[in-house]
Design brief:
247 residues, two-stranded antiparallel sheet, 8 strands, disordered N terminus, Tnp_DDE_dom
Length: 247
């Protein structure tokens, strides 16, 4: 199935999820993509969503923060990021001076922010960023600290976007936030998750003591057969009515 994460035995690592390779036309997973269309949040990435669009899969793949935007969840206000007022007086990116040659920024107090190695990529599809940070502890004694550093922060950082926002991620977020998208995600939770709940908690099948994709696949197929037999047994004929058994 498309949920499976292949294992690279040469490197000893789990291969990241790649829908372009795992869901191919003519495969069993492709035929049942309508049942697994609302997938886990770790599938939410620009390459995966682009592959779904290329294959015309009407997928519903939520991002990690989709519950924070759903007003139906109790206590969601505790996890929402507070919106900063525009007239708060805090320093914005425009208040920092850019040095193109040295690839640094200078804060209003004259301290230099140097770029940290690597590139940060937003999981919500806002693009890729370079992060700049002051190397010294000057921020702790700066008179502009209240206008520059957060309450729990130690030094000022600056994130500069180097790649535009990801269109497929944004479109999927908008789709998930619609009533239809939320309904389809709830349908997946009621269709797929009970299977794992039954196997793990009702049947006590929490671990596979075999190694290798082929052996694990055989055990998983046996578990699936057992689960399906249990469902069929609930609808065995009782006095010719064909109603679910009450025992």
């Amino acid at each position: 199935m498309a949920r499976f994460k292949p294992y690279d035995y040469a490197q000893g690592l789990i291969v990241p999820v790649n829908l372009e390779e795992q869901i191919k036309p003519g495969t069993f997973a492709f035929a049942l993509h309508h049942l697994i269309e609302a997938r886990y949040a770790n599938y939410h990435s620009e390459p995966n969503l682009e592959a779904c669009a290329a294959r015309q899969l009407d997928a519903v793949i939520p991002d990690p923060n989709h519950r924070d935007r759903d007003e139906r969840y109790d206590g969601r206000d505790r996890h929402l990021r507070k919106v900063r007022p525009k007239d708060s007086g805090r320093f914005a990116a425009a208040d920092f001076t850019r040095d193109e040659e040295a690839d640094t920024y200078r804060c209003p107090k004259g301290q230099i922010l140097r770029r940290k190695p690597g590139t940060s990529t937003s999981t919500s599809g806002k693009g890729a960023f370079h992060k700049y940070e002051i190397e010294s502890d000057f921020c702790s004694i700066c008179e502009f600290r209240s206008r520059c550093v957060s309450i729990n922060g130690k030094r000022r950082t600056l994130s500069v976007r180097i790649e535009p926002a990801r269109p497929h991620c944004k479109a999927m977020r908008d789709k998930v936030d619609t009533p239809e998208g939320r309904h389809r995600y709830s349908y997946r939770m009621g269709t797929i998750e009970p299977i794992f709940a039954n196997l793990r908690h009702a049947k006590g099948l929490n671990r596979i003591h075999y190694r290798g994709r082929q052996k694990v696949g055989v055990i998983w197929n046996l578990w699936s057969i057992m689960h399906n037999i249990g469902k069929i047994a609930l609808y065995r004929p009782e006095y010719g009515t064909g109603e679910p058994a009450t025992e």
